[in-house]
């Protein structure tokens, strides 16, 4: 047995992050001898949770938890998600898809897109989307799980994630966590107690006077950062000069009869609007920059752009783009909004929580809390934020829009260095490199760079090993195989029904 | 823009050793589109450094890329299989451990196997960690079999590389490259012509007066670094304060038995000795630091530690450890010894060439050569060089030897920050993290650290979430499976012969035939 083991983990806050942490920890260290996990939350405090869209990495988390995917989809009223459609971002009237999975197929050892770029110069007018099975299926409202038994099938190159009701997701994970022994304590925290010498958090005191003590505290208290910020005073790295949006207004509405397994992001004069279709409703929100539009106007713009009838009052949110300088200080680890915030443009919020949990597992401490391990956790966490930030900034800085003060500001944002290098590389030669296992793949970068109208200055010379006619023939063949495969795929609605993951139709709200 | 006026139409490779012919072979496969010329200039008057070469598993990718038939390749290069490197006398005199290819054991619930082993060692007697490596078990019995992924564990966990005669390898690749259209020019280079405006290399001039012009030059001229240094003055970053070796004596010996499927590195008082068993002979060499031992003495150490009589005079090789500041400068890309040198203790020389080639193909330029792409190449090569450097430094730093000035120096030296962090994380809870595209994985680090007696204070506490009894049972089962799978393999020579990978001109076979 390890010396000085952690005996008690206290999770502060029970939103998405808190219950993800509870589920993850109880799965990974639930059997740890003598360890208890307690989650403190108050029903009096609302959670931010709106409709949540995710990225394919969530499959890894689900697998780690041992979730049955159909059950998970049913319980959270989820739909599948094959990518994100960006509308009006490059210029009004323009749209492109950031699909999951991969484009086409690599040939001659060179990534597919170089062959596509060559084809374009030869007069081929096909879109990059035509070579992504996820994009083609999404447009057709189709869904099937990828097949790994046949690497030659386009289905092996399909990637997917989910869109679900965050409130239901938290409740679902709560049931599982409690089943695995996590203790939930109801109550508002009124005081945090620290060791006078070390400053380590020793316990939190509830309104009732009840004290919850622990060895390791996970701060999932949301924007407040009750432990990490209010108690330990860890500062915040402000990135609002790169990502100036600082408000959102969210509202659910009734379904509109569409069935595309896609999240949609539509650019607005001072921000953008999300649209996340679930099984029982559509989640909508308007992310905006308060320096360029007022709350009333932003809310009115959202309400004027709903595809269904509102199902609730608009929910106003304030935030700041950036991250806590250190996510782990002393015996407190911040997860979720307590650790930082990046607007949900690429659906990365849940991923950041999941990555934090996985990293905590790989560096699970003892009560000795060693500096080298904490340093590593923090260094890598900051890198995650930087990688995502750069990808988000791309959407704003690479735009032709100059129809509002906001977009004129965005066009002139000086991109961070990493992004600048990526842009230059692509502009000069059509090359895209994924650095240090960064979250977003070559597919993601390519879709966004091509989508946002960046013109590559060339393609890989090895693509010329294929004679021109052969290149065009193969491009056409790939398109046809994808189109034929998509024809055979079931509609998302049918897939949900046959996999018993559709919720009871009676529970659905009228469209 | 590729396919237009700016395309590189002529690539000139300067030098025809291992690096030159590896580049020529790869380019002939990937860059010969009928419009591009690939020329290699070499002189028979200049010898190549090539001695017995050992490799690491990524070489299989290079062979696959070139669609090389593995049995033919072994036959042609007097090659043997290599399952790892045996280190003798590194942690302490008398110590011995194997750095095997492939993983140790199977991870359970996402927890790395070595963590399970670390705990089990405190509770019971799980045996040496090498008993959980398919490659190590096969190596210890001199056996070999190709991994069969379809059969699952344990045989799918066997990883291997090769040991071969470097000059035969160059000849083998030369045939490949020439078959695919590479033109070889015989001749000594007497001068270099530069473009007046850009400073790029425009042509190399042969002693005959003939000019060989090109758009892109690959400097494979070895330590001389004819273009990258002598012509472009790129500069060299010296790492000898971490790795003070600067000389080697190399000598071949006859095999005294069937060749072992592993390389051996034996520590001496001021350096170490390699032993690379090929089909027809064994390559030996003593790598040493002239700061700590004289040449005559180093030569005597080598001759005093051979398995059999030397087949030639020991040959002295001088080098400096470090890397060219830029592997790609102007329109010159240095590959092989012209780009830098790291002692062959982990058999990385060929990998550095191979990686440079793959990277150059991924970033293959047009004649305008974008600085951004060149920077990307140089950054990637630097990362790789530094990763390998740090792993090599570990072998010296992680020692308890204090029997010579040399060992006291390396044991006490400061190491690069990234390496210090790695060692610290290991010491705390036995954790190893592979950063980015790092060449050496968890098994490699664990093998060397444990093999050289660097013990973690604790195992990863998360292991305690697994039931010890169940883990012990699972481990016992793995151990039995590796042992049984190894026993079922043929010995390596038998395997090579069955696979028709044994070179035909085998003096021993001839003698047997006569008897």
Q: What gross morphology of chain B would you assign?
A: globular
Biggest sheet statistics of chain A: 7 strands, mixed
Tell me roughly what share of residues is in helical segments of chain B.
25-40%
Largest sheet of chain B: 7 strands, mixed
Assembly annotation: heterodimer
What's the total helix number of chain B?
16
Low-confidence stretches of chain A: none
Average pLDDT taken over every residue of chain B: 93
Give the topology, please.
The complex is a heterodimer of chains A (511) and B (515).
Chain A: E1 8-12, H1 16-29, E2 36-41, E3 51-53, H2 58-65, H3 69-75, E4 79-81, E5 83-87, E6 95-99, H4 112-121, H5 133-139, E7 161-165, H6 166-179, E8 183-186, E9 189-194, E10 201-206, E11 211-213, E12 216-219, H7 226-231, E13 236-238, E14 247-253, E15 263-268, E16 271-277, E17 282-288, H8 295-303, E18 315-318, E19 322-324, E20 328-329, E21 332-334, E22 340-341, H9 349-362, H10 371-397, H11 405-411, H12 417-429, H13 442-451, H14 468-488, H15 492-498
Helix pairs in contact in A: 1-6, 1-9, 4-14, 9-10
Chain B: E1 10-14, H1 18-30, E2 37-42, E3 52-54, H2 59-65, H3 70-77, E4 80-82, E5 84-88, E6 96-100, H4 113-123, H5 134-140, E7 161-165, H6 166-179, E8 183-186, E9 189-194, E10 201-206, E11 211-213, E12 216-219, H7 226-231, E13 236-238, E14 247-253, E15 263-268, E16 271-277, E17 282-288, H8 295-303, E18 315-318, E19 322-324, E20 328-329, E21 332-334, E22 340-341, H9 349-362, H10 371-397, H11 405-412, H12 417-429, H13 442-451, H14 468-487, H15 492-498, H16 507-514
Parallel strand pairs in B: 1-2, 1-12, 2-8, 5-15, 12-21
Antiparallel strand pairs in B: 3-7, 4-7, 5-6, 9-10, 10-11, 13-19, 14-17, 14-18, 15-16, 16-17, 19-22, 20-21
């Amino acid at each position: 047995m390890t010396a000085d083991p952690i005996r008690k983990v206290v999770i502060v806050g029970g939103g998405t992050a808190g219950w993800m942490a509870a589920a993850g920890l109880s799965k990974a260290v639930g059997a740890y001898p003598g360890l208890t996990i307690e989650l403190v939350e108050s029903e009096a405090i609302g959670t931010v949770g709106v409709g949540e869209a995710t990225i394919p990495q969530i499959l890894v988390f689900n697998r780690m938890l041992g979730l049955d995917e159909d059950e998970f989809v049913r319980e959270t009223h989820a739909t599948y998600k094959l990518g994100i459609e960006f509308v009006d971002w490059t210029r009004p009237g323009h749209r492109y898809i950031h699909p999951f999975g991969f484009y086409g197929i690599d040939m001659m050892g060179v990534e597919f897109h170089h062959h596509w770029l060559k084809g374009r110069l030869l007069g081929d007018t096909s879109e990059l989307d035509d070579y992504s099975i996820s994009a083609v299926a999404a447009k057709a409202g189709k869904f099937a799980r990828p097949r790994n038994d046949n690497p030659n099938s386009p289905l092996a190159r399909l990637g997917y994630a989910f869109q679900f009701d965050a409130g239901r997701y938290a409740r679902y994970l709560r049931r599982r966590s409690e089943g695995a022994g996590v203790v939930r304590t109801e109550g508002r925290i009124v005081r945090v107690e620290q060791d006078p010498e070390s400053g380590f958090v020793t316990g939190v005191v509830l309104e009732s006077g009840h004290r919850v003590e622990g060895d390791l505290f996970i701060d999932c208290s949301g924007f407040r950062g009750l432990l990490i910020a209010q108690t330990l005073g860890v500062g915040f790295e402000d990135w609002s000069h790169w990502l100036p949006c600082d408000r959102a207004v969210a509202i659910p509405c009734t379904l509109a009869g569409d069935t595309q397994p896609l999240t949609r992001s539509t650019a607005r004069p001072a921000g953008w609007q999300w649209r996340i279709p679930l099984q029982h409703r559509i989640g909508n929100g308007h992310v905006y920059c308060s320096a360029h539009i007022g709350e009333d106007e932003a809310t009115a713009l959202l309400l004027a752009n709903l595809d269904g009838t509102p199902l609730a009052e608009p929910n106003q949110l304030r935030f700041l783009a950036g991250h806590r300088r250190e996510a782990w200080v002393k015996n407190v680890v911040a997860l979720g909004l307590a650790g930082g915030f990046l607007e949900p443009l690429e659906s990365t919020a849940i991923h950041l929580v999941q990555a934090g949990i996985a990293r905590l597992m790989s560096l699970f401490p003892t009560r000795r809390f060693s500096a080298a391990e904490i340093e590593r956790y923090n260094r890598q966490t900051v890198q995650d934020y930087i990688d995502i930030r750069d990808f988000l900034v791309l959407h704003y800085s690479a735009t032709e829009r100059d129809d509002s003060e906001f977009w004129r500001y965005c066009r002139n944002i000086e991109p961070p260095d990493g992004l600048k290098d990526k842009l230059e590389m692509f502009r000069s030669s059509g090359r895209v490199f994924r650095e240090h296992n960064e979250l977003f793949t070559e597919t993601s970068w390519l879709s966004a760079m091509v989508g946002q109208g960046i013109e590559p200055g060339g393609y890989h010379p090895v693509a010329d090993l294929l004679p021109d006619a052969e290149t065009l023939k193969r491009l056409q063949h790939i398109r046809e195989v994808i189109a034929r495969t998509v024809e055979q795929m079931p509609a998302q609605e049918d897939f949900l029904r046959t996999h018993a993951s559709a919720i009871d139709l009676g529970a659905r709200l009228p469209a | 823009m590729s396919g237009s006026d700016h395309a590189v139409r002529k690539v000139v490779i300067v030098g025809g050793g291992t690096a030159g012919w590896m580049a020529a072979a790869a380019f002939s496969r990937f860059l010969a589109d009928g419009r591009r010329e690939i020329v290699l200039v070499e002189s028979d008057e200049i010898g190549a450094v090539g001695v017995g070469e050992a490799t690491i598993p990524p070489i299989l990718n290079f062979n696959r890329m070139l669609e090389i038939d593995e049995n033919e390749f072994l036959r042609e290069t007097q090659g043997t299989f290599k399952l790892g490197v045996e280190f003798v006398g590194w942690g302490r005199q008398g110590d011995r451990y194997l750095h095997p290819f492939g993983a140790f054991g199977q991870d359970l619930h996402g927890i790395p196997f070595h963590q399970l082993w670390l705990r089990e060692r405190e509770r019971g007697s799980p045996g040496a960690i090498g008993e959980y490596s398919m490659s190590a078990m096969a190596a210890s019995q001199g056996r070999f079999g190709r991994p069969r992924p379809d059969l699952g564990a344990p045989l799918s966990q066997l990883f291997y590389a090769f040991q071969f005669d470097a000059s035969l390898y160059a000849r083998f690749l030369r045939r490949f490259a020439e078959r695919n259209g590479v033109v070889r020019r015989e001749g000594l280079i007497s001068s270099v012509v530069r473009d007046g405006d850009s400073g790029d290399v425009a042509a190399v001039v042969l002693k005959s007066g003939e000019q060989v012009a090109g758009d892109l030059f690959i400097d494979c001229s070895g330590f001389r670094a004819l273009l990258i240094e002598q012509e472009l003055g790129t500069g060299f970053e010296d790492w000898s304060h971490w790795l003070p070796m600067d000389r080697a004596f190399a000598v071949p010996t006859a095999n005294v038995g069937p060749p072992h499927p592993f390389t051996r590195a034996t520590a001496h008082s001021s350096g170490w000795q390699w032993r690379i068993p090929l089909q027809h002979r064994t390559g030996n060499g003593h790598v040493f630091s002239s700061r700590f031992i004289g040449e005559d003495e180093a030569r005597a150490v080598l001759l005093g530690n051979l398995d059999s009589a030397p087949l030639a005079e020991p040959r002295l090789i001088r080098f400096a450890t470090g890397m060219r500041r830029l592997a790609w400068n102007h329109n010159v890309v240095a590959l092989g010894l012209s780009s830098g040198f790291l002692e062959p203790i982990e058999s990385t020389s060929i990998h550095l060439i191979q990686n440079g080639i793959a990277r150059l193909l991924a970033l293959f330029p047009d004649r305008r050569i974008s600085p951004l792409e060149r920077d990307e190449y140089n950054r990637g090569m630097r990362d790789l060089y530094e990763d390998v450097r740090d792993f090599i430094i570990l072998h010296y730093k992680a020692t308890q030897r204090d029997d010579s000035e040399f060992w006291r120096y390396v044991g006490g030296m400061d190491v690069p920050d990234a390496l210090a962090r790695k060692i610290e994380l290991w010491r705390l809870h036995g954790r190893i993290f592979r950063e980015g595209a790092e060449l050496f994985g968890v098994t490699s680090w664990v093998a060397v650290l444990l093999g050289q007696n660097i013990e973690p204070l604790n195992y990863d506490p998360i292991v305690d979430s697994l039931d010890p009894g169940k883990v012990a049972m699972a481990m016992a089962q793995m151990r039995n499976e590796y042992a049984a799978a190894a026993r079922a393999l043929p010995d390596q020579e038998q395997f090579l012969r069955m696979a028709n990978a044994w070179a035909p001109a085998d003096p021993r076979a001839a003698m047997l035939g006569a008897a």
